[in-house]
């Protein structure tokens, strides 16, 4: 062999270094991201469990020491910056109160304030490195979009050592034939590990474990399993397995025996198949019963080289108890039956079932809960009390919109075993302790019902809009069809969007000629009428199998445009009570009002311009507490100009004003067109967006309110013909549901009033759902009996 000279080796080495970027010590300049000087010396990682690779507790290494970030003042903008530090394009959410478990070591940052455009977390404002008054129970986390930055170098990102963890839980039924109604409430417990689904060994399995599993699956409680039945199934499966494994050659003599109670072959086959798969992946589960997730329990995982798994045991079985809302009967979901006694907790403002702002009932009045020390244990108590499972997320910072009125509770500390939130230790709140920007909320685990598989949208520009198609028929005869557009409105569209899992309805459309229906042209449902609270269109009233449409053809079928956010209007009831008074107004000053039908019908026969009308006048201040701006349904091109008053009407009827007798009979009425929807005033951190001047855009921004003063036209009820007596004053905003809102139950306001023919007493004004049921009954039973204001 001819020796290779030194210079030849040098040439080969140089060529290899040019071809291999590793010799250069860094990626090619064309793909390397620009270095961020602000982050030099810092390292980042996601930690905690249960979590996915793109979410977790944020930990920062500084000066060789790892630490966390406090959730005080933490926002989505800060999460954006941190996700980019971690190599992701952006954040989709953030968490508080150590959702992924408390960290250890230093708390490096507190009161972190970012605009979202910073290139490094060091450019954000904070209290300074290591300066914090928090505990690790307040560690912040981020949920990043599962999309990496192009060319990102993760040399400054350290992934925490990956531990086995339970990612998901499900129940697989072992008994029953044919199609089982959903939700599945009893069966074998299976957990999803990184390498797939596995069963859990039942040795040492306890009721506490079942409680945690059922909570994760959306059930409030569990019941005892018939262990003897499943043990018998396992024995039969073992015998069947032994017979199959016997060598052929010798005939098997079958002896006729006395008939015994038989167990169906289906369950045996299932258990036999599951036994042959040797799919046990988890054992030694030990839960306290208060955990919100199985990963928070003490667990033992089988190793890959374990040849004997669950000796003498079998797969763990649970039996869960659904709430009446999700009880299955003949494949149909029942609506929630009325509980014994009125509930003392409720959810408001959520886009999906089982989520919302937490409100509690105290002294007959509903109020919110302050988010101080709000955690998964307290949230789980709320969820189970309402008939859901454990909490998936405990929300702070009014993530489900701000409430109005009282804040009843603060610093709620639950163990997770309490039957009601009121049984948890808490602190009664004072006015200066908390604001509605700190209202607590929850997202609960729900049972899987499969209702979203029976509805779909077609022809829309995105998955959030289109013509509604529903699945009808039974096994073997399932077919898709359209819904008749007659009488289809906002409430029906709200139910459709909820069933689709797409949140609220922006619009319910009766004509869908601009959306192509493809090959689906048959109308299979008509006469749909919903209250707006149903979980699926099947629960709404409709014509059944008899389809009757006034307008035929696929162009006159129902459609929806869905949205994850919606407005929520609320009337300031105290202002109505404070500003109400009577005015006798001359007829010659009411011509414009008469033109807009703001007077009683008897005014038409009055001796114009002589005489007067008696008017009950008051101011109305309408707040938008939702998560989307309130906008008129019609665009500016279709607004109606009223020459007399010199303004446009963007909604024909924006509010109804009524005087009712105690039995609900209307004795006087008025209405208000939305001649000027605008932002009169806003909260400190909110800017006005809508103004009527110069034909501007109309609407009410989130966090703003529109004020109709008592001294403008039509801001009254004509009570000229009303006789003296006790009455109820009622004001209803958005009465025809023209514009979608997250909550219509708070659109009505009621007051007691007593009229003696000369003066009127107005008192006890409140939002329709602000009182308990008993308080509302008392209110309607004795209208006008208490007098605290003389007008």
Automatic annotation (TrEMBL):
The record's Gene3D superfamilies line, in alphabetical order, gives: SRCR-like domain
Q: Which PROSITE patterns match?
A: LYSYL_OXIDASE (PS00926), SRCR_1 (PS00420), SRCR_2 (PS50287)
Stretches the record annotates as Disordered: 329-351
Pfam families referenced in this protein's UniProt entry, alphabetically:
Lysyl_oxidase, SRCR
Q: Name one GO molecular function term.
A: copper ion binding
Compositionally biased region (Low complexity): 329-338
Q: Where is the SRCR domain?
A: 44-145, 171-321, 345-445, 455-563
An annotated GO cellular component of this protein is:
membrane
Localization (cell): Secreted, Extracellular space
Enzyme's top EC category: oxidoreductase
Any idea of its EC number?
1.4.3.13
Which Cys-Cys disulphide bridges does the record give? 70-134, 83-144, 114-124, 287-297, 370-434, 383-444, 414-424, 530-540
Q: Which cofactor does it need?
A: Cu cation
Catalytic activity entry: L-lysyl-[protein] + O2 + H2O = (S)-2-amino-6-oxohexanoyl-[protein] + H2O2 + NH4(+)
Which GO BP terms apply?
A: collagen fibril organization; inflammatory response
Signal peptide from the UniProt entry:
1-25
Q: Posttranslational modification, per the record?
A: The lysine tyrosylquinone cross-link (LTQ) is generated by condensation of the epsilon-amino group of a lysine with a topaquinone produced by oxidation of tyrosine.
Query: Could you tell me the keywords of this UniProt record?
Result: Copper, Disulfide bond, Glycoprotein, LTQ, Metal-binding, Oxidoreductase, Repeat, Secreted, Signal, TPQ
What InterPro entries does UniProt report for this protein, alphabetically? LOX-like_protein, Lysyl_oxidase, Lysyl_oxidase_CS, SRCR, SRCR-like_dom_sf
Physiological role: Mediates the post-translational oxidative deamination of lysine residues on target proteins leading to the formation of deaminated lysine (allysine).
Q: Which family does it belong to?
A: Belongs to the lysyl oxidase family.
Q: What is this protein called?
A: Lysyl oxidase homolog
Query: What is the organism field in this record?
Result: Tursiops truncatus
